[in-house]
Design a protein that fits this description.
Blueprint: H1 9-18, E1 34-36, H2 40-44, E2 49-51, E3 56-59, E4 64-65, E5 69-71, E6 77-78, H3 80-91, E7 95-98, H4 107-113, E8 119-120, H5 128-131, E9 135-136, E10 141-150, H6 157-160, E11 166-170, H7 174-182, E12 187-191, H8 194-202, E13 208-212, H9 213-222, E14 227-239, E15 242-243, H10 248-263, H11 266-275
Parallel strand pairs: 3-7, 11-12, 11-13
Antiparallel strand pairs: 1-2, 4-5, 5-6, 8-15, 9-15, 10-13, 10-14
Length: 280
């Protein structure tokens, strides 16, 4: 498994912003939305939905969230969510595309607006606030938050809640919200990119970062051996796939395909590939 590291970080940003990076497909040129059906099961139910491009499930995500979605050294979009999206698309009789890298806090508005992407599968937590804007699929993964700091720093949530402490997060995430609610005395530093935040801790620019635990563990193991998870935060989050409220047929089709992926063992295979376990 190739992981975005410090050496290819700058190159990755350039790749992410320049073209549609596909988990097996093409670019983000839009075509008129086309009516479609999900396949045998959905056809029986006469469920219909619209797609940005006929025959294609178009995804949008922030492509620096390893191991969920990121750009490898060959410029290819890869990750757990990428494999899952491909599996879901296959069940629906579709192919799969990924739009160029987009800031995390713009993903929900993009799906709500419509016309550019069909779904957002991006390690995104289902929350009441987001549910006001978009619909979500059934949950596909559980997660908690973690506090990352320099190895041996002795920091934790109590010591970080102090004046002068710089605590980074990715803008618009549940980690962002957690800092506001639980570290009111610290200075929150919202950033667009996870790797930049972790590099900031390594260089001493920031004291810590609050981030999804699976991402923290993966990036520390692959690229940031000088950092550690100093505290696990049991937030009990669940990831879901965001879909426009104006496209209920697509939501139903996604849920049907997701159930098939769970039932036939594909989900366990993808989990084992990216996390080394199915217990997540």
């Amino acid at each position: 498994m190739t992981i975005m590291n410090r050496r290819n970080f700058v190159a990755t940003l350039g790749l992410a912003g320049s073209a549609a990076l596909l988990a097996g497909c093409s670019n983000d040129t839009q075509e008129p939305a086309a009516d479609a059906t999900t396949g045998d099961d959905a056809a029986a139910d006469e469920a219909s939905y619209t797609l940005v491009k006929e025959g294609v499930l178009t995804n949008v995500a922030e492509l620096g969230f390893s191991p969920f979605e990121y750009i490898d050294e060959d410029g290819t979009t890869v990750g757990f969510d990428v494999d899952l999206s491909n599996a879901i698309a296959e069940k629906m009789g579709l192919t799969c595309e990924w739009l160029p890298n987009q800031a995390f806090d713009t993903l929900v508005p993009t799906i709500k607006q419509g016309g550019k992407a069909d779904i957002c599968i991006a390690g995104m937590t289902i929350s009441d606030e987001r549910l006001e804007e978009v619909d979500f699929s059934d949950p596909y993964l559980n997660s908690n938050q973690g506090i990352v700091a320099a190895a041996g720093s002795g920091l934790d949530s109590e010591s970080l809640n102090a004046e002068g402490m710089q605590v980074a997060c990715q803008t618009g995430t549940t980690g962002d919200e957690w800092i506001s609610e639980n570290l009111p005395n610290a200075t929150k530093v919202p950033l667009a990119d996870v790797t930049a935040a972790l590099m900031g801790i390594s260089t001493g620019l920031y004291n810590a970062m609050v981030i999804d635990l699976p991402v923290a563990q993966n990036m520390i193991a692959e690229s940031f051996s000088d950092l550690e998870v100093v505290e696990e935060i049991p937030t009990g989050e669940q990831y879901g796939i965001a879909v426009s409220k104006d496209n209920p047929g697509l939501l139903a089709a996604i849920n049907d395909a997701l159930a098939q992926v769970e039932e036939d063992g594909t989900m366990d295979e993808i989990k084992q590939k990216w996390f080394g376990t199915t217990e997540i």
